[in-house]
């Protein structure tokens, strides 16, 4: 299947009620193939798709068919993955606040391992596993105290963030795990943040892990799995120029700088880079409103369908797919009763009129999954492919 321009989808879109998400499955297939062609070169490398980015069944199934496992952060995500064909033993489960029922569900299903974020959590998993007569495989999420060049709300690997266990406590928690008969220590987990485009951030993580491995070896501790999380960013400004992220640079950084030990496995948890460019939020212009100093395009999607601009000031390219008229400057806003319900300010669009279809691009990751029903709105529907 070949990729199609959104303009060419206009006829089909006209028949659908807006707003909705559209996922370009041809681009997704291309993206998955690009990832596989980099990772298949390496033995012992494993891909877990970060389901939080997009959990739409049609999208999940394609990712599963490409041979990915998944990275879940809730019982709900584990259920969705199982329903969509992911084998339980390729699911890893992270999150700072796992509830008892979620731990039980994960143990019952037989997931690959838990990414454990604190000693109290470890103790609860041990207790539940013991009661269920099981042994839980656990990795510890270590906070590497490595900064990342990204939005402050989406860095996770700094000492000040709530995530993970500090480097200073690492050996202590492993020793505790070794004493617990219902726990089996299988690895270390890291994740420094999201929407990272500078490869030296990932390189810094590699060096940090190399140092930690030396420390662990001195203690006689061997580690089966190293999980480096996700974080690779996408080009929000130029989705058409860079529809497929630079996986070569990303994976080569790990191949070059991370010193894996013989037989050690390396796990990745990419989310945004897999699905981000494949999705667009398709909306319709309801009104063009001329205010004193500004001209507003009011569309029928809002922060309820795509929260990122309101929450992080995130930029998403806005495209009028119905008009080719002379460009004008608009603020593109939603209908929600919040001043932050703005998609783009001072946006150059072809002259826009009521009824025009507008695509908000690069919305495949953290778009539909973060939608809400504020103002009693319906959750957006999703369509794929042709
Ligand atoms: N692994 C862990 C442990 C994570 O916390 C995350 C994302 C990922 C993997 C996947 O990261 P990615 O490859 O997608 O960067 N809602 C925000 C992003 C939050 C990311 C949370 N964790 C946004 O819209 O930008």
3D structure, described in words:
This protein has 386 residues and is α/β, with parallel strands linked by helices. The chain folds into two domains: 252 residues, Alanine racemase (TIM Barrel, Alpha-Beta Barrel); 108 residues, Lyase, Ornithine Decarboxylase, Chain A, domain 1, CATH 2.40.37.10. Helices cover 29% and strands 23% of the residues. The protein contains eleven helices and 17 strands. Strands 1, 11, 12, 13, 14, 15, 16 and 17 form an eight-stranded mixed β-sheet that branches. Strands 2-3-4-5-6-8-9-10 form an eight-stranded parallel beta barrel. Helix 6 links the parallel strand 5 and strand 6. It is elongated, with a radius of gyration of 22 Å. The protein starts with 9 loop residues before the first helix and ends with a strand. Bound molecules: ligand LLP. Ligand LLP binds next to helix 10.
Question: How would you summarize this macromolecular structure in one to three sentences?
Answer:
By secondary structure, the protein is an alpha/beta fold.
